[in-house]
Amino acid sequence: MKTKECKWYPVCPMKYYYEQGRLDKKWIDQYCHGNWTRCVRYQKEEKGEFHPDWMLPDGFLDENLKDF
Q1: Is residue 40, in this structure, part of any structural domain at all?
Q2: Chain centroid to CA 65
Q3: 2 FRET partner, CA 20 to 30 A, in 28, 33, 35, 51?
């Protein structure tokens, strides 16, 4: 079964972190190509609320991604 991709995925920092090998594929599978409506990043984007690039889909701020 093919799942719909989050509309923000092409411009989402998670995509770039994943492509650089800095983010595990599970994040992409579970959120970007899975249940993206539960993604905190998606929810904030839809509301126009600021969120840092290094915020993971579950809302955790991953300082290891901050130096990007």
Answers
A1: yes
A2: 12
A3: 51
Q: Is 63 within the bounds of a domain?
A: no
Which two three-digit tokens encode residue 7? 């509309």
Q: What residue numbers bound the domain in which 25 lies?
A: 1-49
> Count of domains in the chain?
1
Q: How many CB atoms lie within 10 A of CB 59?
A: 12
Residue 23 DSSP label: S
Q: Tell me the per-residue pLDDT of 13-53, one tens digit each, with 9 for 90 and over.
A: 999 999 999 999 999 999 999 999 999 999 999 999 999 99
Cα-Cα-Cα-Cα dihedral sign, residues 14, 16, 17, 23: positive
- Give me the pLDDT at residue 3, please: 57
Count other Cβ atoms within 10 Å, centred on residue 27. 18
Write down the pLDDT at residue 67.
74
